[in-house]
Amino acid sequence: METQRLNQQIQFIIEIDKLKQVLRQTLLTDASRRENSAEHSWHLAVMAITLAEYAPLEVDIFCAIKMLLIHDLVEIDAGDTFCYDVQGNHNKAERETEAALRLFGLLPEAQGKELRLLWEEFEAVATPTAKFAAALDRIQPLLHNQQTEGGTWRIHGITRDQVMKRIAPVETGAPALWPFILQLIEDCIQAGYLKPSAN
After folding, report:
1. What is the pLDDT of residues 63-113, one digit of tens each?
2. With contact defined as beta carbons under 8 Å apart, do 132 and 55 qualify?
């Protein structure tokens, strides 16, 4: 057993525990508190397993699960940026890239590079697998907002236009789920959970 390699891996494992302390804007479905980013990542990974039958044929589900489990690790350093925070999103990519360098750099070189490339693939949203993973990342908060009668949407005065722009990746990443998502949004508007578009 190579002691240095194992020590690096253990250091990484201990470091990523900090993701449990990063709070997101999304409320738990019982609205008791905000979820943390580790809970979010776990939820998405289980969604990938559960909804695998709706993935386009080119999607590698195991790879998508790995992406979803690591995609928010950068928030340990960069923090969670609320998707509707225009100013916060301005330098998000820069902050997260620096975080990726540090965090994946804790691992043995080849392993760190593998996870870094997976993270970059997720961020680029160019491959079928990354598009499917990104679609799930958009669907999960939508479900939480529906279950909490508008939750984060109500707190921040979010409109249908904003939500439609945010969930657009679902149409191409998980087209089989798109009709369900469109209906869910309309149901939320009808129920008063989401503001209709300002016209």
Report:
1. 999 999 999 999 999 887 666 666 656 677 888 999 999 999 999 999 999
2. yes
What separation in angstroms does the CA of 141 have from each of 2, 17, 41, 84, 105? Answer: 42, 22, 12, 12, 30
Distance between CA 33 and CA 120 in Å, rounded? 30
Largest CA distance in the chain: 65
Q: What single-letter amino acid sits at 23?
A: L
Residues 155 and 34: beta-carbon distance below 8 Å:
no
Question: For 143-196, what is each residue's pLDDT tens digit?
Answer: 999 999 999 999 889 999 999 999 999 999 999 999 999 999 999 999 999 999
User: Does the CA dihedral 66-71-74-76 come out positive or negative?
Assistant: negative
How close are the terminal C-alpha atoms of the chain, in Å? 65
Q: Closest Cα to residue 147, out of 51, 43, 26, 50?
A: 26
